[in-house]
Amino acid sequence: MQRTLSIIKPDGVSRKLIGKVIKKLEKSRLKIIAMKMLHMTRAQAEGFYAVHRERPFFASLTDFMCSGPVVVMVLEGENAISIYRDLMGATNFKNAAEGTIRREFATDIEKNVVHGSDSPESAAFEIGYFFNSFEIVK
Ligand code: ADP
Ligand code: MG
After folding, report:
1. Which residues line ligand 1 (CB under 6 A)?
2. pLDDT tens series, the chain, 138 aa
3. How far is residue 112's CA from residue 51's CA, in Å, rounded to a whole number?
4. Ligand 1 pocket mutation pick from 62, 102, 109 by most atoms within 8 angstroms of CB
5. pLDDT tens column, 57-95
6. Ligand 1: nearest atom to the Cα of 90
7. Is 39 in the active site?
8. For residues 68 and 39, is the Cβ–Cβ distance under 8 A?
9. CA Rg, the chain, in Å?
10. Which residues surround ligand 2, an ion (CB under 5 A)?
């Protein structure tokens, strides 16, 4: 069993895609074991994406991520990290496979509707960033 962090980004929330994304998650082999809505401050968004601080898109990305509310979830399942990355599709929606969340719903390389952890180490950091142990159901 593995856990991963999912975020429905501000574009997904404002475009009323929460239900559509959750529907895809519930059709998958992943189980939602924690969920909440929150609106990050700039500092919180910068902390979350600290690994990307040297990237040219860091300022724009963190601006975007604190521009409105997001839905954060913990997903659990066998190979949850790669299963969810496959369900999301490529970072650039133009390269995302048919049937993926980003291919169906994203409009922009930055505004790509969802986030998913990319490794066990980042999943542990990202889950702990948003959830304490009492907020994750057994
Ligand atoms: P992913 O979300 O697929 O793991 P990255 O971790 O590489 O992708 O990037 C984090 C987020 O930064 C992306 O989801 C996207 O919102 C944004 N991003 C990535 N690459 C670019 C880019 N070239 N231009 C603008 N925004 C980008
Ligand atoms: Mg990433």
Report:
1. 52, 57, 61, 91, 109-110, 112, 115, 118
2. 999 999 999 999 999 999 999 999 999 999 999 999 999 999 999 999 999 999 999 999 999 999 999 999 999 999 999 999 999 999 999 999 999 999 999 999 999 999 999 999 999 999 999 999 999 998
3. 19
4. 109
5. 999 999 999 999 999 999 999 999 999 999 999 999 999
6. 3
7. no
8. yes
9. 14
10. 118
Atom number of ligand 1 nearest to Cα 115: 2
Judge contact between 42 and 135, C-beta under 8 A.
no
Q: How far apart are CA 42 and CA 52, in angstroms?
A: 14
**DSSP letter, residue 1:** -
Q: Tell whether pTM > 0.85.
A: yes
Half-sphere exposure of 112 (CA within 13 A, CB side): 20
b/e per residue 47-69 (b: at least 16 CB within 10 A)? ebbeeeeeeeebeebbebbbbee
